[in-house]
Amino acid sequence: MKKVVLLVFVALLFASCAKKGGKEAVQSQAAVSEEAAETKAPSSADTTPSDNAPVEKGTFAYIRALHSKEEYTQAVKDLTQDYLLGTWSVEVISEELNYVYFAFDDDGTYYIFSPYGGYMGQQGKYELDGNNLTLFFPNFESSAWDERIFPDKKETTLVYDYDFKDFYDVGVLHNDHLILRNGVEKTADGSRCFLKGREVIKTENKPVVAKDNLKLRLEPSLKGKEANFWYRMFLVATLRELLEDSYYKVEDNQELLNVMLKGIQTSYDARTVKEDTIDGITAPWYRISLYDYDEEGMPQNFWVFGGYLEEYDKSKDAEYKQQLFNAALEKNLLVFDEEAYQDYEASTGYKRVTGITEESAKKIIKAGGSAESDEELKGTIFKIGMTKDEIIKLLDKPIVTQGNHIDYFIFPDGNGYRLCFYFEADKVTKIEISPEK
Length: 437
Hints:
Elements: H1 14-20, H2 23-27, H3 34-37, H4 60-64, H5 69-75, H6 81-84, E1 86-92, E2 99-104, E3 109-113, E4 119-129, E5 132-135, H7 144-149, E6 156-165, E7 170-174, E8 178-181, E9 192-195, E10 198-210, E11 214-215, H8 232-238, H9 240-244, E12 248-250, E13 259-260, E14 265-278, E15 281-290, E16 300-305, E17 309-311, H10 317-330, E18 334-336, H11 338-342, H12 346-366, E19 370-371, H13 388-395, E20 399-402, E21 405-410, E22 416-424, E23 427-436
Antiparallel strand pairs: 1-2, 1-8, 2-3, 3-4, 4-5, 5-6, 6-7, 7-8, 9-10, 10-14, 10-17, 11-13, 12-18, 14-15, 15-16, 19-23, 20-21, 21-22, 22-23
């Protein structure tokens, strides 16, 4: 019988666990070894370990002591008892974040572990027949994981396929809804492979920028379930300098948003082989990552349509951040910071208020030079219905009051604008703007 290699994340104690028959012996195997996870096949025919090296059954050293390079290479193409021993990560194809580990002992027993370390209490029996592995429903109290792995609460059979390229590994155990991988051979960047049942091209985190607001999805399809992202800390970290130079702040009571905002610079690690046509644009879907900058935050993966992504250009960083700032403003993720405005010093306040009012003026010009609704004033510091006192307090000097309207002049660098505020019953009903020399 051919001997093969196995990947172990821990120094295996499973044989002793079987003999002791107790959960305590299994619980001692909580640590996952990164060194073992990245171990590759031997590079030369001389694979015998040194006399002092431990040669435990179920480890790479054990396999290397038995095989030449040629025998080793052939051995990993088959599923043997020695190769199966150790720890395999498990993924349910139809779910999003759902990893556990399976560990196999040589007495026909498997154990389920948490990816964060620790025995989860489930164990059961398995049978190996050639390249077919059958897992029987565990004899402990069932959990949500058991129901995903054993949808009928009976046995689950997987087939080992050395030529199957999963997004992470080459050579996996799989069926229609389940994948087990052990990390012996990593799938190379540029490979055509499968990710959660979708055929994709694996990519080495290429940077891209959103050209428009893009819907976030959990699957690469218009029918895919929409996803959400919490932007608060992300915007605080990304727009720090722009926020410091404005009278805007990130909304504290912010809700989750289901779009990737225009101007966001991120990276993708996979794109679909299949392409879709949306708004007359044909492109694949890209798996991007966003990081919420929370203390316990982790990069989150989402799918977005690639027709509205462009390659990142470092020289356009300032433009990207301004696009993001404007997109966040439109989505009400940024709000006017009245406290910061009131705290400005008289000597520098005029310059700051001039800058932010100038930006508001430009938005009114873009809306046609006249605004009579809050929708037309979106993104400015003004609102229809503000009182004269509120306008005067907000703008400071220079202000000229003329009957039912107030004129406000902005003179950045000698050129500027005249804002005219019209009132009825002391409430702003319309704002007009015109260039001033």
